[in-house]
Design brief:
The chain has 115 residues and is mainly α. Helix content is 41%, strand content 5%. It has a two-stranded antiparallel ribbon with strand order 1-2. The protein is elongated, with a radius of gyration of 17 Å.
């Protein structure tokens, strides 16, 4: 089911996402991001460097109500995915918050890119 949603949502994400967003997108790579940085940083008066960061446990704690508001898909299905249990060492664990990383369908969102 997630694979079908991924096929349906991917074209929407690709047409609405920030054009300078490179993470986890088809047909985009680290080399593409580095090229864009070179182009931007070569401009007269541009910043002198790049600040890279990672928000610790961002997807582990992301709010479900925010995703329900911003993800363009069937809200009932999305709620079911939020509450799906995960399995670790033959034991099922409930999902109370966040989203799984590395799943078939990483939730497509229109998150801002900062330049």
């Amino acid at each position: 089911m997630q694979a079908l949603y991924l096929l349906a949502l991917d074209p929407i994400v690709e047409t609405t996402a920030d054009p300078n967003s490179y993470g986890f997108r088809k047909e985009r790579s680290t080399a593409d991001a580095m090229m864009q940085c070179s182009i931007i940083l070569a401009r007269k008066g541009s910043a002198q460097g790049v600040l890279e960061g990672d928000v610790t446990s961002c997807f582990d704690t992301i709010r479900h109500d925010w995703l329900l508001t911003h993800v363009p898909m069937d809200k009932g299905v999305l709620r079911m995915w939020f509450k799906a249990e995960y399995r670790e060492k033959q034991t099922f664990h409930p999902t109370e918050e966040g989203t799984p990383q590395g799943g078939m369908c990483t939730l497509p969102t229109k998150l801002p890119t900062f330049w």
